[in-house]
Amino acid sequence: MIVHRCRFVDFMPAAINALAFTPPTTRPILACGRANGNIEIWNPQTQWNLEKTIPGEKNTSVEALTWVHQTNLSDTESKLPRLFSGSSNGMIIEWDTITLRQKKSIDSYGGAVWCLKNNYANTSLAVGCEDGGLCIFDIEDEELILIHKFMRNNSKIMSLAWDCEDKYIFTGSSDGNIVQWDVRSKRIIQRMTVDILKGKDTIVWAINVLRDGTIISGDSLGHIYFWDGKTGTVLQKFKAHDADVLCLVTNREGSLIVSSGVDRKCNLFRVVDQKTMDTDTLKEDDNKLDYIQRNWVLVGFRRSHLHDVRSIALLEDQVFVSGGVDTEMIVYSYNKFLRGNIKKLPYIPQKPLICISKSKRLLMYRNNDQIKLWELGEAVLPDSWQLEQIPRLDLVKPQKAILEMSLKESHYLTASAISEDGEWIAVANTRIVKIFKVQEHSSTKRKLSIQKIKFPQNIVNGRCIGAHQLLFTPDGTKLLIVYVDSVVAVADLENWQRNEIIFLKKFDQHANPTDDDPIETVISIAVSGDGKWLATGDLCNRINIYDLENLEYYTSLPKYGSTHTTLSFHLSLPILVITLASNEFFIFDVKLKKLTDWSQKYSQNLPKEFLKLENKIIGCSFNPEKNAIILWADNYLCLIDFDKCNEERLLCFEPCNGWQKKLPIQQKKGKKLLNEHNINFQLVQRYQPLMFVDFISSNTLVIVERPFTSILENLPPSFYKAQYGT
């Protein structure tokens, strides 16, 4: 077997600026806002599955996020929390988390938005701006309207928090002041000032208010303050960090606080109640009267990140999540924050940004607003190869892309595809779909050019809409499109030269579901090798199959207990592989409309070691020469050999280290010895984070990696404090 192991793809994840969990009145969802404007939606209930990514815009960054859930709405509406973001371009946006488009937007009237937070009643949104203004927006009854702008301060508002009764707003500024605003009178009640470094402004980066009125602040000198909210006096002060405190979070009870920042330390504070004798009462009465004094103690810290931590979010009684400049999210256990294991969520996109033309040996990569095309070179051929062994192979030499195409669109791309013959390229964002004809010039060095083809746009309610998924049929004559409204369309390209590209059929099964679940984003699309069958799946696990020959709906698969992650057709058979976030997978025979015999026997009895793997399956690849599949995630390959599975043999799971020959493997007590030729379920975890895996021909595999070291090389230097004697 030949393996092309490529590392020339220049994917670079953006820094994490904001994290926010949905309120406890709805299902838990985590929104992650990045510096490039993208917002990721993660589901902790499905083993931290990245469900979708809301594309950003050029020259914007998400600086703040908040969820709003108004439970007084109708039952249907109350299930859907509203997501708001504040950006560096001064816009406040409400996002449609189904279509991944802007639902509403409004100017902040104060420049860049550095912080925003809804009140506890979910009726108002407070926004802190670049010009020092504090704005209040009405968000009741699906509105987003500016109702008041408080007197402008002389410095930027970098943080804010509501009190538990929604009477006051506390803001932290870039001049070291904490200001208490009265929401009704629109006046300043009091000011509190943190320590000021001579000749330099102190910034209050983070602020929060507990239910008992205590105010907690974190500033650029590394201090954590505890203030009396009534008198504005300092109750306690900690020099807890060696540099700026950028974020802090508290639980609802107000007994626990986690702070972090530039020094990468995540500090844990807990409250300690102490009984104190009231001396004033003793003068009047000999009877002792005690009261409870709340003191905070720094319990300990963890340092798990490699760069600044910009945001922390808390899912009550379950987990903390932190993120920052190093682009990774880290999940900590709520009850074992200091000692428990951490979980690093993948920074690699869970839907591949890469597709290939197998016949032309072309690899296409989609960036935010750019398409790059490479021609695959030669890889090292090992001396010998066995199916159950994954060898160590040299890398394909880095090479220059033979085609680079930058798109003049303000919104980032959501989908891209290249036809099997390499003659078509299609791209889309949430507003438009574009197609290009690829032309090859005859010369010594391969050179490609592209021609934009006029494509009919889909107009809904007077607005042009884009797509979430694109795919060409294997013969390149049709383009399959999943629009943002979940309608699936089939476009005929055969008469493109006469400008007669038409839609042959539109399927609305996802847009008009017959069950009680709401409309959801279509996240998967696959077409069979003969171009006859099309499969699509959404986040409600509605997986539909369409007959492309007769252009009609064919059948739907049963819903699975865990969210599906990928759909993949066999290269030549009407067989569909469905992978789930639980790492289970099922194999469906389309013609018979049922699971295959193998799947009925084994899919519910997969090896426990495989099901316990933390990272989710991203893709499935078929080797044309073998009756086997490769399932892959960002940090492993798993080879399942169907020829070694029979009625007498169970699934035999075994990690593989590469070329080394294995001695006979001893299974659990009472089981017979098995040698390597009996292994039918093999795991390889050697490779760096994987962005793409697929066969381009018989026994020829393409693997695209993006090592974390290459990510770190592109980051600025992190904070370092020299220790005495070093």
UniProtKB/TrEMBL annotation:
WD repeat locations: 150-191
Q: Name one GO cellular component term.
A: t-UTP complex
Q: Name one GO molecular function term.
A: RNA binding
Q: So which domain of life are we looking at?
A: Eukaryota
Tell me yes or no: is Hydrolase among this UniProt entry's keywords: no
- SUPFAM superfamilies named among the record's database cross-references: WD40 repeat-like
The record, for Pfam families, names: WD40 (PF00400)
Q: Would you tell me the protein name for this molecule?
A: Uncharacterized protein
Q: Which UniProt keywords are given for this protein, alphabetically ordered?
A: WD repeat
What GO biological process, any one, is recorded here?
maturation of SSU-rRNA from tricistronic rRNA transcript (SSU-rRNA, 5.8S rRNA, LSU-rRNA)
Keyword Iron assigned to the entry: answer is no
What is the organism field in this record? Diversispora epigaea
